[in-house]
Structure formats: C-alpha cells, structure tokens
Write the structure tokens for this entry.
Amino acid sequence: MSKVSIVVPFYNCPYIDEALESLMNQTYKNIEIIVVNDGSTIYSDKITPYLDKIIYIEKGNGGTASALNMGIKNATGDYFCWLSSDDIFYPEKTEVQLDFMNKNRALFSYTSYYCINENGEIITPSLGIHLPNKLELIKAMSKGNIINGCTVMMNRKIFDLIGVFDETLPYTHDYDLWLRIVQKFDIQFLSQPLLLYRVHPQMGSNKHAVSIKKETFTVVSRHRAKMKQLMLKQLKKK
C-alpha cells in the first residue's frame, strides 16, 4: 500500500487547525503529515493538539519553497502532496487521487477545486483547467500557471530526476517546478474538485500581486526556449 506524504508549510496562519483537521479526516490512512513551521510568531498553539499525529519541524523563516523542500527532505512516502495552511482537503482527496494515479499509471496529477471565503463558504463553481492534449497544455503553461499546487499529487521519483522547488523564487516556485516537470513527464488532470482553496485579504497572492507578476515573467523567460522546443516536437507528432 503506497504511502502519501502531505507537507503543510505554516507561517502565522490562523486557519492551520482547519487544514490539519481535514488531514485527520482523510479516508486513505497510509499518510504522513509533515508540518513545517517556517519561523511563525503567532498561531503555533493551534498545532499543539495534533503534535502526536504529525511530524513537526521548526525552522527559521525562509519562505514557502524552503518549507516545502524541508518537508520533502523529511518525507518517507511514495507520493507527495502539499496543503497550504489556509486550505482544506476533501476527506476523499488522497484516496480518490491515488486511485486515479494508479489507474492512469500517472506520475503527476492535478485536480479541480472550489474557492472558499474566510468562513469556509464555497464562493465559486468548480475551477480547474483541463486541456485536451499535451500541445494545448504546453501552450497554456507557457503563458502562466494553470495548476493549483495544493491539488497536486506526484510520485516522489520526480524530485530525484528534476530537483525540488527553487528557493530563490518566493512566489512562483510552484510554476517553475511544473514547467520543469511538463518538459519531462505527462501531466494528468482529474476533474473532480478535491480541494477548498481559501480566498482572504491576507493571502499571499493578494498582498504580493505586483511581485508575483514580475516573477512570473522571469520564470516564463527562463523556460521559453525549452517550452518552444517542446511545442514544436508536439506539432511534428500531429
């Protein structure tokens, strides 16, 4: 039975207990939960009730990518998932996605999700971009990130082959990693929404919108040549 490692980066987030509660309620039980406290100064007490059920790591503040990499370094599972401390997994998330991965012999998959507000109320229809083929996926990913990182499940072998998150990218480390992955592996999409993604005033994508835009341009530029080659390769197959 495959083990799934779920890494939860935590920094001063008031919703951490809701995130952890959703992991306690997973229907698939062969999981390990790794919470990486990235130098938090508040809300750490909300983790205390879960300490006997999780792997808890404290480190100095270094950003989400460094927290994720610390979690990956300490993970012992066959598969990796990431849950932001303000988001929520559906109870069946791990079980359904792992089954999907096995049936499709996939090394990487992402799913649809709903947005929720501060009170946990769903505020959007199901979100998730499904592209009909690899060429369309490459085209879309060349322009911007269409994959919500907390919907991802991936085989740990991928890290051995292409490396982990780039810690020099504070906001777009996930986009950079997905671009490296799409160049080497197939990416599978599961349309079932399995994540509740919280939208609130303190979320990073609101506070750092200008910096994210600049950093996205850097990542796009970094991968432009290889993505263009990949696109041409796919066109030749048609």
